[in-house]
Automatic annotation (TrEMBL):
This protein's name: Uncharacterized protein
Taxonomic placement: Bacteria, Pseudomonadati, Pseudomonadota, Betaproteobacteria, Burkholderiales
Length: 278
């Protein structure tokens, strides 16, 4: 996870997005000293939410919701105009620097392709009195005005609690059908219906690390999904790209951009960013 944080950090340097922002890093106390030494990083030490709440003990994905919906974290986020909530294994591009969201922007989530899941989400929506927009597969990353993102995160956690109590207290299910395995993704969709159902865009974030696609102004943010195609974070960790020289990597493709940033060290990234000019 720390290695992945460096990927995101280096992308913020290379894209120059870090010139105008700060990173709020919510991390385990044991890794605090392994993060980069940088005044732009606001580190908030938190134990995993799942370890502090017995009812969530068997669901580690709740950490990416519960730890970020924490009041201390939200108070810091509210000091900014815009907030991007994302995983560590992601990369931002220079297009993010000039992007100004007026609503919530999401990536795609792959949790509601089965009719049975869509039916259950619609049932929950009706039962809870939320407007039903028919919007499914809302991604985990979210970018938007800080007040909207903070409101959404609080609602996301509330929806997680309610789903656990009403749908998954004594039921686990099996993905891709209705399943506790993706409870937090279901809750994210329901939270969006409750908070900003008409003020969102889905698909702007979490692009795939596709080597066939070139980076343009419509690519703000790339996510290292689980894949065996280039660029694969799993193959990278296994050393399968170790023979590739940095200068031979095409940074203009989504896959090459991620590969180069993962492979280069921080000083190499700083130098390359400086060579790009303003």
């Amino acid at each position: 996870m720390v290695q992945e944080f460096f990927w995101l950090y280096k992308s913020l340097i290379y894209s120059k997005v870090l010139n105008d922002c700060e990173i709020v890093a919510v991390c385990h106390p044991s890794v605090r000293n392994r993060l980069p030494v940088d005044s732009k990083i606001i580190a908030i030490e938190k134990l995993p939410f799942s370890s502090l709440h017995e009812r969530w003990g068997d669901y580690k994905f709740i950490n990416s919701v519960g730890n970020l919906a924490d009041s201390e974290v939200l108070d810091v986020c509210k000091k900014f105009d815009v907030v991007l909530k994302t995983d560590c294994d992601t990369f931002v591009t220079q297009a993010m620097k000039s992007f100004h969201p007026t609503g919530l922007c999401f990536g795609f989530g792959a949790y509601a392709y089965e009719d049975s899941v869509r039916v259950k989400l619609a049932e929950c929506s009706r039962r809870w009195g939320y407007p039903h927009s028919g919007l499914h597969n809302v991604g985990a990353s979210v970018l938007g005005p800080s007040e909207m993102v903070c409101n959404y995160l609080q609602s996301h956690m509330e929806c997680c609690d309610r789903l656990l109590e009403e749908e998954f207290k004594d039921f686990r299910g099996e993905w891709p059908n209705w399943s506790k395995q993706v409870l937090s993704m279901y809750a994210g969709e329901l939270a969006l219906r409750l908070t900003y159902p008409q003020a969102n865009s889905v698909g702007l974030l979490d692009h795939f690390t596709n080597a066939e696609r070139r980076i343009g102004s419509d690519v703000l943010h790339i996510h290292a999904w689980h894949t065996d195609s280039y660029w694969s974070k799993h193959h990278f960790r296994e050393g399968k790209y170790a023979e590739t020289k940095l200068e031979d990597i095409d940074r203009h493709t989504l896959g090459g951009y991620c590969h180069w940033l993962a492979a280069a060290d921080v000083e190499q990234v700083r130098h390359a960013a400086k060579m790009q000019g303003a």
